[in-house]
Amino acid sequence: MKSLSILAVDDQSLFREGLALVLTRLFPDVNLRQAGSGPEALEMLQEHRFNLLLLDIGMPGMNGIEVARQVLRQYPDLRIIILTQYNGEGMITHLVRLGVHGFLLKNSESQEIKKAIETVLDNRQYITPMIHPSLLKEEAVVAAPSIQFSKREADILIYLKMGKSSKEIAERLALKENTINSYREDMLQKTKTRNVAELISYAYENGVLG
User: Fold this and answer.
1) Under a CB-based contact definition with an 8 Å cutoff, are residues 27 and 54 in contact?
2) Phi (first) and psi of residue 65, to 5 degrees
3) What is the SS3 assignment for 46?
4) Of the segments 54-63, 132-141, 190-199, which one has the largest average pLDDT value?
5) Could you tell me if residue 174 is left (phi over 0), alpha (psi between -120 and 50 degrees) or otherwise beta?
6) Which residues are in the Response regulatory domain (predicted)?
7) Helix, strand, or coil here: 68?
């Protein structure tokens, strides 16, 4: 394999560090850098050359779908493997159409990670077997979601996913409880979802959480 330079992008530092340990064990000569957000990743891509991007989808503020869209446009030779803990149809089929090169679930074993990297660097697509093939059929592809979430909304979604109440979220974000309720109602209206459970499902399917 030619010299390997990887940028790993995930907003959870613990996951990034664990991934880094796996990658350096699998590829001892790898040149590995890390980014904790979409904007940081795009900045690093301007400063360094990489041949592989390992990209988390569910990042607050600028999610992985938007990062992938910009990278594929600006760096067409850069290979992208999506890392996610969710295998929903809406997100995956859109990213297939967008042109990403691989998909891995975050609980993948190290040997599958190695196989995926070697496959996409060989100019072939890698889709984890844990994603059902029916999701990748051309007729299943859906349009990209047009709804955007602010960083504050994404932060609130993360706490809602954890089952936190409006009062608890308000305390953690130093906001008023009514403000949290207002954010939640706004997100329900713009996503046309009926409750928090549907809102969280929407967020997973469209890459806001991942």
Assistant:
1) no
2) -65, -45
3) helix
4) 190-199
5) left
6) 5-121
7) helix
State yes or no: pLDDT of 142 exceeds 80. Answer: no
Q: Are strands 126-127 and 31-35 parallel, antiparallel or unpaired?
A: unpaired
E strand residue ranges, the chain: 5-9, 31-35, 52-56, 79-84, 102-105, 126-127
Give pLDDT tens digits for 32-69.
999 999 999 999 999 999 999 999 987 877 888 889 98
Cα-based distances in Å from 32 to 5, 37, 77: 6, 16, 18
Task: Read off the DSSP letter of residue 194.
Answer: S
Beta bridge partners of 33: 7
Task: Give the amino acid at 143.
Answer: A
Measured distance CA(94)–CA(202) in Å, rounded = 14
pTM for this model (two decimals): 0.68
